[in-house]
Write a structure and sequence with these properties.
Layout: E1 6-7, H1 19-27, E2 31-36, H2 38-49, H3 55-61, H4 64-71, E3 74-78, H5 80-86, H6 91-96, H7 98-101, H8 106-118, E4 123-131, E5 137-146, E6 157-163, H9 165-187, E7 193-196, H10 198-209, H11 215-221, H12 223-231, E8 234-238, H13 240-245, H14 251-256, H15 258-261, H16 266-278, E9 283-291, E10 297-305
Parallel strand pairs: 1-3
Antiparallel strand pairs: 2-3, 2-6, 4-5, 5-6, 7-8, 9-10
Helix pairs in contact: 3-8, 4-8, 11-12
């Protein structure tokens, strides 16, 4: 939205607007603003005549120019939902306190909207932060369109404000949760691996379709199937403790040297893991001898858990 626009001198409901349309505007369940951008249009024409071509650079070079643009936008009328959303007693109360609703970094966001209009677009969309008159934060999705018949003057622009505060709050909480989870993964003092077993599952499905029931017998007769399964496991990520445990300087080095880590009798241990997976056991634990990239061996307790099954 715009920084401290001024209500136009005239009535809030032009007499030319049919009564039914006026009712629909006033009763719409979304915040609606009818605004006059004609003075902004004149300002743009003057800047073009002065040779300005890159509006964004021109505005950011002197932020006072953005405020000047905002001051040239006049509110014609707003609907009831707008008053409710911003906690205004009436239109005069809202217009007199717009500086409290559109503040802080709104000027920077307004520059994006101005640039869209400068590019001869008849509409613009932006996401912004507004505030109710008592200071409550509102995350909003703002859309505006120059009404048909007013493209040459911009004297009638319809602006809608959708309250997306709840959605944005959930998004921020999700991002914070993911950051927290990522931090736990990276810094827990145990070796953690994220692996993709989807290709192994496909191999299992193919074997089942061939009528195989006793997987232990099958893999004893066809040990190459175990090796094939090992090759089809894709390591997606490991944590910092894993790198220290295997003396690897970084993840790329460790992943490139996996054959040096999982070797010798690992196929036998892996066969047991595959048998448990075949039997539907998605969580199991066993010990195996692994090797660091410098060929030192160590006994490790491996815990396998399958999620998203």
């Amino acid at each position: 939205m715009f920084n401290d626009p001024i209500r136009a001198d005239g009535q809030f409901a032009p007499p030319s607007v049919p009564e039914d349309d006026a009712d629909m505007f006033d009763l719409a369940p979304v915040s609606l603003w009818l605004e006059d951008f004609s003075a902004l249009h004149a300002q743009f024409e003057q800047w073009r005549a002065d040779g300005i071509t890159d509006l964004r650079a021109f505005l950011l070079d002197d932020p006072a120019r953005i405020a000047r643009c905002a001051s040239r936008i006049r509110v014609v009328k707003v609907n009831r939902r707008t008053l409710t959303l911003f906690g205004a007693a009436d239109v005069d109360h809202l217009v007199a306190n717009l500086a409290r609703a559109f503040r802080d970094d709104m000027l920077t966001m307004h520059a994006d909207e101005l640039e869209q209009l400068w590019s001869s677009k008849a509409r613009f969309v932006s996401q912004a932060v507004n505030y109710t008159l008592d200071g409550k934060r509102l995350d909003v999705l703002l859309k505006a369109v120059i009404l048909p018949g007013h493209e040459d003057t911009w004297d009638r622009v319809l602006v809608t404000i959708e309250d997306i505060t709840e959605l944005e709050t959930m998004r921020r909480k999700t991002a914070e949760s993911e950051l927290y989870t990522r931090g736990l993964f990276e810094h827990l003092p145990v070796s953690l691996w994220v692996e993709d077993f989807s290709s192994v599952k496909s191999l299992f499905d193919d074997v089942r379709e061939r009528g195989i029931v006793n997987y232990r017998t099958f893999t004893s007769v066809h040990p190459e199937f175990i090796e094939r399964c090992m090759q089809e496991i894709h390591v997606l990520d490991v944590n910092q403790h894993t790198l220290r445990m295997f003396a690897a300087p970084d993840k790329a080095t460790l992943l490139a040297r996996l054959p040096d880590v999982f070797r010798d009798d690992m196929q036998q241990h892996f066969q047991e893991q595959l048998i448990e997976l075949w039997e539907g056991k998605l969580f199991h634990q066993r010990e195996a001898e692994l090797f660091t990239r410098w060929q030192r061996s160590a006994r490790a307790s491996a815990i396998l858990g399958i999620s998203g099954a």
